[in-house]
Amino acid sequence: MTLTEKHITFENDCRKMFVGETIRAIIYGELKHFPEEENKISPEPNFRTKYIDIDSLDYSIYFKTDRKTIYIFWDNTFTCYGLLSKKLDLTETTNDYEQKWDVSTDTKWIEFIGQKIVDFKIDWYGINIKNKTYPQTFEIMTENRKSIYLTASELKEGEDEYYSQMDNILVTTNLNLLTKLQQIEQNQIKKIHSKKSLWRKILGK
Question: Which is the most buried residue in 41, 128, 129, 171, by most CB within 10 A?
C-alpha cells in the first residue's frame, strides 16, 4: 500500500485538528428517521449494539473541546466509504438532518472527558480491485494512555457479521473487540473466495 502526498497531507491535517485539544463533551449524530416530518424525533437512540463497548452511528460523532467542535462523519473523499473530520463552531445545530445525543456521561466516555488528546493515527485500507487507499479507522489517543477508535464499518444487527468500508461509523474504546470483529470479516471473505474457487472447479473455469 502506497500513501501519496494527498494521503499524508490528509492525515497531518487531521492530526493538527485533534492533538492538543481537551475533550469536554461527546455527541452522537444520527440521521433522522422521519424526513417527511421535520420536527419529529426518535424518542430513543438507535446506536446501541449487542456489544456494550461498541456503538453504531449512521452518520457522525462530535468532540467538543475548549476551542472548537471536531465533527467526524463517513465520506467519499478517497472512495466510498471512508472517514473525514472538520472543525466547527461550538454549536449542536450544524444541520437539520441529524438528531443529536449527548453521551458524555455514558460509562465508556467518562474517563475521556477532560482528557487532552496527545496523538492521532489513521489506519489506511487498500482496495486491490480499484487500486485505492482510504481512511478506514481513526485512532484518537489521550493523555491517560487510552484510545478511541472510529471506523467506517457496520455490524449486521444481532449477528457477528462485520463489514468495513460502509456508510456507517462504529465507535469503540475496546481494541481487542474491534480486532476480533475485523478477523470475522476476513474469515467471511475467505469463505466467499473458497466458494468461488469451488464453483470454478465444478464448472471447469
Answer: 171
Cell numbers found for residue 11: 492525515
Distance from C-alpha of 115 to C-alpha of 141, rounded to nearest angstrom = 10
Residue type, 64: K
What does the pLDDT read at residue 205? Answer: 52
Of 154, 173, 157, the closest CA to residue 165 belongs to 154
pLDDT of residue 203: 46
Instruction: Determine the Cα angle at 108 with ends 34 and 111, to 5°.
Output: 130
Q: Which of 10-24, 27-41, 83-97, 164-178 has the highest mean pLDDT?
A: 10-24
* Owner of C-alpha cell 472517514: 83
Going 44 to 46 to 51 to 57, the CA torsion angle's sign is: negative
